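Database export, one record per block. Field names are fixed; values are copied verbatim from the stored entry.
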Amino acid sequence: MIIDKLENYNMYHFGSAWKKAFEFLNSLSADSEDKKYQIQGDDVFALVMSYKTAKAQKAILESHRDYVDVQTVLVGAEGFECFMRDELVIDTPYDSSKDAEFYKRIVPGYARVDVAVGTFVALYPHDAHMAGLMIEEEKFIKKVVVKIKKDLLLRMG
């Protein structure tokens, strides 16, 4: 998992797919339409969505195998709980058509982060995560999730 400011994306040298994702993120505004955006076919795409944040008891705990999620908000702020995927109890087995596996939240995550406008979180396949969590109270947010095929990201080092 990476948590940082959008302006620092170029500190991570993960290749052209990473750069395209952040160029797209930086082109969005609070007025961007809720829909799916193609950035590089099925390899890199984005989903802009709006909803109300909720308590953890109502949120979804998930992980992905094929894509890395880069998530930020365009309006408001939301909380994330992060978990070690291999320590969770599966609720719904992996569905390759959705690239998602869902889990039971038995205990709070090992980390809690709040993402506001100008910040992002990058979640890798081993990072199970629960997004959409309220911060103090339930509020409307608009967010974007950029999905990058994990094989397109270069390794640092």
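Remark 1: The domain at 2-152 is CATH 2.60.120.370 (Jelly Rolls).
Remark 2: The first helix runs from residue 16 to 27.
End of record.
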